[in-house]
């Protein structure tokens, strides 16, 4: 089994400088007065519609409503100066309009996904709480959509589990995509069962999904974290419908999207999927799939410390014959392949240098740096006309010049990664989460993109307390997960 800690553009209005703080139902909220009053941007991760992409980060161990490990989600808003701790909003099940109640060990925010589910131009955030007890079903799990709007996320709608007696941990994996090809964003939800549910768009705040479809994946069901441990969406055959990728402890499978529901196309890889991400790295019009294999069995000789495999898309979908493996043994990739590094445990795609080709961020939160075990490290691999390459790869940790902090044991730097352009300069910033920082308080780093790639110059970092999440003797693990990672 995997390590136990894994679950696995418009120009905006100029806003006033005053930031208003309020405490609502035990949850700190900071909003920008008036929000965005012009037409919203339509960006899937722009929750307040101001034209800047935002960063959503989970703190599943946070105290909320006075309950330990109830969990919370933090949105840091993008701006012309990028991401900062000050521009944020914290949401929990104690927040006004959010369904449910903060309860001990719910871990709201264990899983995140985003997209404009009700087609109002504002990005919405989907929150998975797989350990929540629901109507007497211990660990049944829940899924909540937090709705975007001019002031950011506000209110929410529960997506009910259609098969509560058939599985647990509903919401342990999430993905947003147009799986039916009708031009509307759908939501895929996984659990400990073989059944994966597609909730169809258009969603409404009052009624939820427009319908639902079920498909049973060729995976093992069983106690958490079995079942659909990872989900992803991508149009690998370029037919206008997103395909669904299901990652499990028994292997990973691609299901071709269709109006009647996904159907099996192929299996990809045999090991546990620690992470999945999708992008068109060679810009041939077909999405490509990256599978992170961070937990390596004794029989897997690919790499001792984990690896990431890119499977390129084509007219027939994911092409298993056209693939490439990247690890710390790959030419150009800094570092040394060592057992239990967890290379590939976090993945994200985005164009960091503005050349039009997506690049790949890879996290290894168990990487030992000097005397600091499990300090963590992140790499950025370059995309290009021939796809991903190790040539020119860069490596970052808390010992890298310009990166705030210091490498310490169990920081878990690289728990989560995200590549997105938060300041609209045409280059993606690298956001890194470290849920173990400062004895599991957690922290986030943001490194800027540049024409030469990711740079530590001007890097910022902020911890749980800086975004209004107190420790209170608990372990918030802020940065353990990011939406889009």
Task: Explain how this protein is built.
The two termini are 22 Å apart. The chain has one helix spanning 437-440; strands spanning 20-24, 27-31, 55-59, 72-76, 88-91, 111-115, 124-129, 142-146, 156-159, 173-177, 186-190, 195-200, 211-216, 230-234, 243-248, 251-256, 263-267, 275-279, 288-293, 307-314, 317-326, 346-350, 359-364, 377-382, 389-396, 413-420, 429-434, 443-448, 455-463, 481-482. The strands form 8 sheets. It has a 4-stranded antiparallel sheet with strand order 5-4-3-30, with no helix packed on it. A 4-stranded antiparallel sheet has the order 6-7-8-9, with no helix packed on it. The model is unreliable at 1-36 (pLDDT under 50). With 485 residues, the chain is an all-beta fold.
What percent of residues are in strands? 35-45%
Q: Helical amount among residues, as a percent range?
A: under 10%
**3D shape:** globular
Physical arrangement of strands within the biggest beta sheet: 5-4-3-30
The biggest beta sheet reads:
4 strands, antiparallel
Helix segment tally: 1
Structural class: mainly beta
Annotation, overall tally of beta strands? 30
Report how far the terminal alpha carbons are from each other. 22 Å
Which quaternary structure do these chains form?
single chain
List keywords for this structure.
485 residues; mainly beta; four-stranded antiparallel sheet; 1 helix; 30 strands; globular; disordered N terminus
């Amino acid at each position: 089994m995997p390590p136990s800690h894994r679950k696995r553009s418009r120009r905006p209005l100029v806003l006033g400088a005053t930031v208003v703080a309020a405490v609502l139902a035990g949850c700190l909220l900071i909003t920008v007065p008036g929000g965005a009053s012009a037409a919203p941007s339509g960006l899937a991760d722009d929750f307040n519609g101001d034209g800047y992409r935002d960063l959503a980060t989970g703190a599943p161990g946070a105290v909320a409503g006075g309950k330990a490990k109830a969990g919370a989600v933090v949105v840091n808003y993008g701006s012309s100066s990028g991401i900062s701790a000050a521009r944020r909003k914290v949401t929990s099940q104690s927040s006004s309009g959010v369904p449910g109640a903060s309860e001990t060990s719910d871990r709201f925010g264990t899983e995140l996904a985003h997209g404009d589910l009700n087609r109002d131009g504002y990005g919405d955030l989907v929150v998975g709480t797989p350990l929540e007890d629901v109507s007497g079903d211990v660990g049944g799990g829940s899924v909540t959509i937090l709705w975007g709007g001019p002031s950011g996320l506000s209110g929410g709608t529960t997506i009910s589990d259609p098969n509560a007696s058939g599985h647990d941990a509903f919401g342990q994996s999430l993905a947003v995509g147009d799986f039916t090809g009708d031009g509307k964003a759908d939501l895929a939800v996984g659990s400990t069962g073989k059944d994966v549910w597609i909730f169809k768009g258009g969603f409404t705040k009052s009624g939820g999904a427009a319908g639902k479809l079920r498909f049973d994946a060729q995976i093992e069901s069983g106690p958490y974290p079995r079942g659909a441990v990872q989900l992803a969406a991508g149009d690998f055959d370029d037919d206008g419908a997103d395909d669904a990728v299901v990652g499990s402890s028994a292997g990973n499978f691609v299901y071709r999207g269709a109006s009647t529901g996904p159907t099996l196309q192929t299996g990809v890889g045999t090991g546990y999927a620690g992470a999945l991400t999708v992008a068109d790295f060679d810009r041939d019009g077909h999405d490509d799939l990256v599978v992170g294999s961070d937990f390596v069995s004794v029989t897997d000789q690919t790499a001792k410390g984990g690896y990431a495999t890119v499977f390129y898309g084509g007219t027939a979908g994911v092409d298993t014959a056209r693939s490439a493996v990247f690890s710390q043994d790959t030419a150009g990739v800094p570092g040394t392949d060592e057992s239990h590094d967890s290379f590939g445990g976090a993945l994200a795609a985005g164009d960091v240098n503005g050349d039009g080709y997506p690049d790949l961020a890879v996290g290894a939160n168990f990487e030992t740096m000097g005397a600091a075990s499990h300090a963590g490290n992140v790499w950025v691999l370059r995309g290009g006309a021939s796809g991903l390459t190790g040539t020119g790869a860069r490596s970052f940790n808390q010992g890298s010049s310009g990166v705030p902090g210091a490498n310490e044991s169990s920081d878990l730097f690289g728990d989560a990664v995200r590549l997105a352009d938060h300041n609209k300069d045409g280059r993606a910033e690298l956001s890194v989460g470290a849920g173990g920082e400062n004895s599991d308080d957690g922290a986030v780093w943001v490194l800027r993109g540049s024409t030469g790639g990711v740079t530590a110059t001007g890097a910022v970092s902020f911890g749980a307390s800086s975004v209004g999440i107190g420790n209170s003797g608990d372990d918030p693990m802020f940065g353990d997960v990011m939406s889009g990672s």
